Amino acid sequence: DQKKVRETRRKQQLQEPEPAPSSHNTAGVATVAPLPLPASPQIQCFPTSSTNIHHQLSMLDVLEKIGISRHFAGEIKSVLDFTYSRWLQRDEEIMLDTGTCAMAFRILRMNGYDVSSDSLSHLTEASVHLNDTRSLLELYKVSQVSTSKHELILDSIGSWSGRLLKEQLRSSKAQKLTPLLREVEHALDSPFYTTLDRLEHKMNIEQFDFMEHQMLYLPWQRNQDLLALGVMDFNTSQIVCQQELQHLESWVKDSRLDQLPFARQKLAYFYLSAAGTMLPGELSDARILWAKNGALTTVVDDFFDVGGSKKELENLTTLVEM
C-alpha cells in the first residue's frame, strides 16, 4: 500500500531529532542559543494564474495544518483580503458552494475578519449533498468557531452535520477508512480547541494526502517541497524546545530547587504549557520565563503549605509586603 509507505516514511522523518548543543548562562534570563530557523522558502503556493477562491483557501488551510503558514504571511494576507472582499459582496463563487462558503467563514473568522454567522443561514441539512463528506466536515468545523452563545445558526449546523458525519463513519466501519474519513473521525473526537498545534502539525504531515485536499492543481514537486518544509520546520522547533528544557533543568539544579524536600518538581508541566501555546522560535524568552515563574510559584506555594515554620512564613510575608 503506497499510502502506508508514505506515512511510514514521514513518521521516520519526524522522529525525535538529536538535541543540538545549547549554550546557557544560568545567571541570565534569556540564555538559550537560538537555532537558525528554516529559510523563507521560494515556493509558489498560490498560482497567480488562478483566482479560484476554493483552491486558494484549500492551499491556505494546508499551510496552517502542517504548521508552515508563517513562511507565507504576505501571500496569505493577500488571499484573505481578496476572499473577504468577495465575502462582503456575497460572491456566488463562495455562497453557492457549501464547502467553499463554510471554509471561507471559518478561515476568515479564525484570522480576525468580521464575518457574521447570519451569512450561513442558507446552509441547511436539505441544501447539502449527504454524500459530500468534505463539505459536511467543513460545516462541522464551522460550528466550532462560534464567538457567542447566541450564534444559533452555528449550533444547528454543528448538530446536523455532526450527526451525518457519524452516520458515514458507522457505515464505513466494515471497510478501511480513507484519509478523509480518518480526518472526520479525528474532528469528531477532538475539537480543534482541545488540541495542541504542534501535535496536530505532526499528525497532518504524517497522514497528509494531497488528493484528498484537492491540491492536484499544484506540480508534484511543489507538493513535496511543502511537505519537506513542514518536516524541517517541525524538527527545528523540536530541537529548540529540547535546548530550552535542558537550560531549565540546569537552572533548577544550579538554583538547588530540586534539593528542597517539600517542593513538587513541576518544571516539565509548566514548560509544556508554554511550548504548546507559544510556538514561534522568537518567543524563546517568553517560554523560559513562563516555566521559571511557574516553578518558583510552586515552590512558594509548597513552602506555605508544608515547608515553612510559622516564623519563616511571617518573615517571608513581611519581605513580600515591603
Automatic annotation (TrEMBL):
<protein>
    <recommendedName>
        <fullName>Terpene synthase N-terminal domain-containing protein</fullName>
    </recommendedName>
</protein>
<feature type="domain" description="Terpene synthase metal-binding">
    <location>
        <begin position="253"/>
        <end position="321"/>
    </location>
</feature>
<dbReference type="InterPro" id="IPR036965">
    <property type="entry name" value="Terpene_synth_N_sf"/>
</dbReference>
<dbReference type="Pfam" id="PF01397">
    <property type="entry name" value="Terpene_synth"/>
</dbReference>
<dbReference type="InterPro" id="IPR008930">
    <property type="entry name" value="Terpenoid_cyclase/PrenylTrfase"/>
</dbReference>
<dbReference type="InterPro" id="IPR008949">
    <property type="entry name" value="Isoprenoid_synthase_dom_sf"/>
</dbReference>
<dbReference type="InterPro" id="IPR050148">
    <property type="entry name" value="Terpene_synthase-like"/>
</dbReference>
<feature type="domain" description="Terpene synthase N-terminal">
    <location>
        <begin position="49"/>
        <end position="188"/>
    </location>
</feature>
<dbReference type="GO" id="GO:0016102">
    <property type="term" value="P:diterpenoid biosynthetic process"/>
</dbReference>
<dbReference type="GO" id="GO:0000287">
    <property type="term" value="F:magnesium ion binding"/>
</dbReference>
<keyword id="KW-0479">Metal-binding</keyword>
<dbReference type="InterPro" id="IPR005630">
    <property type="entry name" value="Terpene_synthase_metal-bd"/>
</dbReference>
<feature type="region of interest" description="Disordered">
    <location>
        <begin position="1"/>
        <end position="28"/>
    </location>
</feature>
<dbReference type="Pfam" id="PF03936">
    <property type="entry name" value="Terpene_synth_C"/>
</dbReference>
<feature type="compositionally biased region" description="Basic residues">
    <location>
        <begin position="1"/>
        <end position="12"/>
    </location>
</feature>
<dbReference type="GO" id="GO:0010333">
    <property type="term" value="F:terpene synthase activity"/>
</dbReference>
<dbReference type="InterPro" id="IPR001906">
    <property type="entry name" value="Terpene_synth_N"/>
</dbReference>
